[in-house]
Structure formats: structure tokens, C-alpha cells
């Protein structure tokens, strides 16, 4: 029979939706990358906590603190499409080894500058932008690699497992950073981040991808032709286009908390380094809990329903965080915020990945990252500026209202199921 009956299709969808997010860890190569990524993500979160806290010490204005996130986001917006083209046309293993080495070098330079007392607000923003550029070159190839490590039926679960790694790190990294900054100074967070890239580099050295998973080398890459093909794929897939629109508007509003959290910790809750780290850790704990229940939720609800309900919940938690001066209330709200954030981002990310043909996957994911970065960058600028006018609490409440309104507006953009067959390699983009 050429197609599944409705009963068989429903059974298959239920089975795929219920796959545990940790099931892909049974695959040795995926497990190696997952563990290396966990270690690297801990370093990344320590580094980000250190950078934001350093700016809070150097120049604690809402605009400058928000500018740290803007400096990370702008290179992604400017260069990520180009990074996607290159990642689709060069050996991803060697490409990733190069980008990981670039990240290591920038983190080491930030450690040296901080330790020598050379760091200024301007230099911090410049080096953060350089780190953002390195991350931009790395991310499309890294995300496009996931379907090469697991079967098609496990892609959504593998993305969830990656989210678990990321959010476990977010639970541990900021708390470690707070302790490390209090005991040894902020520079140690940059050093740990540099060391954390070594694990991923080692796994890449020993990884032997399948021959049919390696991009074909071309003597000459017609850059703008290939870029146009990637844009065509993203533009003409209803589900990918929906994911791009939704992640742009979601990131714009959700960035309010990420860009102002250090000021929430210091101005509203009266916390220092350790307390700021614990606030970030609460977000990570919530995301890990959310990842645990997401397979069950996917059996009960569509992607559209999950994203809409999570965004409306996020708006509520933003208001509570903005108005409360209680440590306990803020911590609970941050945990719930982290859980809903993970649900939205994992669903949108998985929607993009499962709808992209392999040969265009890095370019498609680079578009996803570009829209996310644009939303985060514009949001950080907007909410930082508003915080100066109406205080941090007012800025977060306005962001919450915008999030609820945009969630209802974008609900009409259909995401579709996450258990589709491998998209065809043949497209009109050829």
C-alpha cells in the first residue's frame, strides 16, 4: 500500500510524539556530541553571565547592559545567511573544527584582557561582537548536523535532547559563574569557556561522517546563486515561513527578560553575583522540566496550540517578574518562564529542521537563526531604552502585553506536524 491509512498514520504520529527526548543518547556518536555540547554550553553560560555582570560593574545603565546582547545578536543577523551557504558547501566537520577554534581564541583573549585590567565597556562590546561572529559561523553547521547523527524519526527528539543539554547547562553554568566571580573574579568565566571548546574539537577530530552525509565539494561556489536557492526554500515552504515569522516576533518580546535580567537581580531583588547566577539557573531548571513533559504534551496538543499557550503563559510570568520584589515569587516565575520558553523554541526549531531538505538545511537554519537574532537584537534595544524611561518593571510589563498580542496575531501561521518524511532533495530552486 502506497500510503498509511488514517488509523496507521495516527498511530505513527503518536509513537513519534512519545519518543523520549533522551532516546537519541543510545546512539554513540550523538551521545558523544551531546556530552561535549553540554560541557561547552556550561562554558558558554558562564561566559555570558560573566560578560553581562562585567558590564553591570563597568557601566550599569539599562542601555549598556542590553547592548551586550545586541553585540552578540547583530553579527548573527548580518552574517548568518552567508555562514549557511558556506556550511552547505564545505565539509561540515572541518568547518566546525575551525569555528570552534575561533570561539576558543576569542574567549582566551577576553580572559587575558580582563585579567590584565584592560577591559573597558567599548572593548567588552567589541570582543562580544567577535564572539557573536564566531558563533554565527558555527551555528548553522552545528544545527544542520543533527539529522546526520540520528534517524529521521528521532530528529524532533534529538532537538529536544539538545535543548535539554543547553538548559542543563543553563541550570549549572550561571550558578557556577556566580560562585566563580565571587571567589576568583569575572575573568575565570572566560577562561572556563575557552577550555570548554576543547571537548567538542576532540569529538570532531574522531568523528567519521557517512559518505552520503558529507556535502559535495565544488570547485567554485556561486555564492549569490546558492544564497538565492536557500531563500527560495525558506520562502516557499509554508511551515518554514511560519516558523521564521513566529520566531522573529517571539524573540523580540521574550528578549526583554534576557536583556534586563541582571538589572532585575540587582535593582529589584537586591542580589549580587551569586543571586544573578541563581536567577539564570532557575530559567534553566524550568527548561529541563519542560523538556521532560513536552513529549507527553505533543501527544495531546498540536504545535500551534503548544506555542500559543506557552507564549500567553510567558506574558503572565513576565508581568509577575516585573512587578514582584519577592525572591521566592520571582524564582517560581523564572522556572515557569524557562519551561514555556523551551517549549516555544524547541517546537519552532524542530518545525524548521524537519521541513528542510538536507542539501539546503544549513541555509534554512541560518535563516531561522537570522530571524531569531534580529528579534533578540531589536528587542534588547527596545526594552533597554524603555527601561530607562519607565523603569525595568514598566519595560517588562509592556513587553508582556506585546507578547500576548503578537501570540494571538501569529497563531494563524500554521506550523504543521513534526513527523513528516524526509523532504525531497529536488526542488524548483535548482
Largest sheet report: none
Tell me the fraction of residues in β-strands, as a range: under 5%
- The secondary-structure element order is HHHHHHHHHHHHH
Number of domains: 1
> Number of DSSP strands?
0
Task: Give the CATH architecture.
Answer: Up-down Bundle
Q: Roughly how much helix do the residues carry, as a percent range? A: over 70%
CATH topology: Growth Hormone, Chain: A
Helices and strands, with pairings:
Elements: H1 6-17, H2 28-58, H3 62-89, H4 92-115, H5 121-149, H6 155-184, H7 187-206, H8 223-236, H9 238-268, H10 273-300, H11 303-323, H12 327-354, H13 361-410
Would you kindly provide a written description of the structure presented here, covering whatever features stand out?
There is one protein chain. This protein is mostly helical. The protein has one domain (25-208, 228-410): Up-down Bundle (Growth Hormone, Chain: A), CATH 1.20.1250. The protein is built from 13 helices and no strands. α4 (92-115) runs antiparallel to α5, α10 (273-300) crosses α12 (327-354) and α11 (303-323) crosses α13. The chain is globular and about 50 Å long. The model is unreliable at 1-18, 212-219 and 421-430 (pLDDT under 50).
